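ugh ok fine here u go
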Amino acid sequence: METKKIRVLHHITNEVASNLQAQVTELMGLSPIMANSSLDAHEIAHVSSGLVLNLGMPNPDKLEAIKKTVPVYENDNKPIVLDPVGISMSDTRLELALNLLKNRKISVVKGNSNEIQALIQNHSKGFFSEKFNTVLVTTGKIINLTNGNREENIQMPKSKIHKLPGTGCILGTLIGCLIIKGLDPYQACIHASLMMARAAEKIHSDFPYGKIQETLLNELEVLSNENLSDHK
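structure:
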């Protein structure tokens, strides 16, 4: 009997979001592996289907892991979702993000408005997306997506979801999962953003804090098998 191949999503991420990202990867039907170490992250890359790369909590070993690992994904033409956490506050992180983009092999860059503005500087989002051959996702009350040729805005509902640390990181994981499952990067970004918007609708302002994560994961599990194209 033929054994179904398990698709693996590799995360180089931070400790704040790691557990949530692993759970979301599982509910999306993929296998997560959280490999930040320079000892083996590049080895993990050879057997993984894609990478979600989060620049949060950098240290020398993590930077070495990034340096050794990203070329593996680039050479194999496997998707990379870049989350440039904190680049608006750190020249070191900003320089790293720009260096990662130079080969035009980063599928998606997802960040908040301050991070994206620090990245594109005086350029337009569309120009930057075309220059670096990437989909640019700006999170906030409205999630803005562009690949240079197309642009989409998805309204986030009023919700207590923003009180949960790591929700932006979850969006990056959803995008990575959907690309691996066959969507092109732009459509993956739209679909993932719609999933987050729909889940946020269920997280009301009077929710106790501990219920936010439970509701988010339960809603994403339901939405993982639903076609959201009719809910835009």
